[in-house]
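Onboarding guide, step 5: your first structure request.
Type a short instruction followed by the sequence, for example:

Predict the 3D structure of this protein.
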Amino acid sequence: MASDPISRANPFRGEMAPTHSMLNLPRRQFLAAAVAGALGASCRSSSSGTSSAEDTASIGPLLAPATLAGRLADVKAGRLAVLYVGPAILFDKGRVPGARSIGALDSEEGRKALQTALAGIAKDTEVVLYCGCCPVKSCPNVRPASAAVRALGRPNAWVLDLPTRFATDWTEKGYPVERS
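The system replies with structure tokens like these:
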């Protein structure tokens, strides 16, 4: 490790602290990077660090990104509803085309927003939930959303399988992205 205080390890994230070049970023870019890092850290800290078939089963049936990308015409036609259940800042940076933002489910307001959205979707319409802030198996937003959807008797609901995060498993794979 370097003796320069700027390059010391950051004990809160287990990664390196900002480099000199990061500190020279325009304020908006630096803040966006800091927020994204904090969001990722909060997701990682809520995970047990293990994954199993039981973890996946408690999330709900998973849908591969390639499958959803191939069904975007169904989203546009209203046969498939895509609900984003994560932080607004990430939704605004880029999302699955046609996705509707519900917001994070860490509040009563978020849970009510999900119930309201589901009430407005026909029972025969398939539903795909996703967040993408962190690996789906440890996401603090997807698990309660999936549980709520199952509790409301929606057997045709899926969770988008993003094993790493949205940027890696969707955007970098070249699937279409809608931006604000």
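Each response can be followed by summary notes, for example: Residues 5-45 form one domain.
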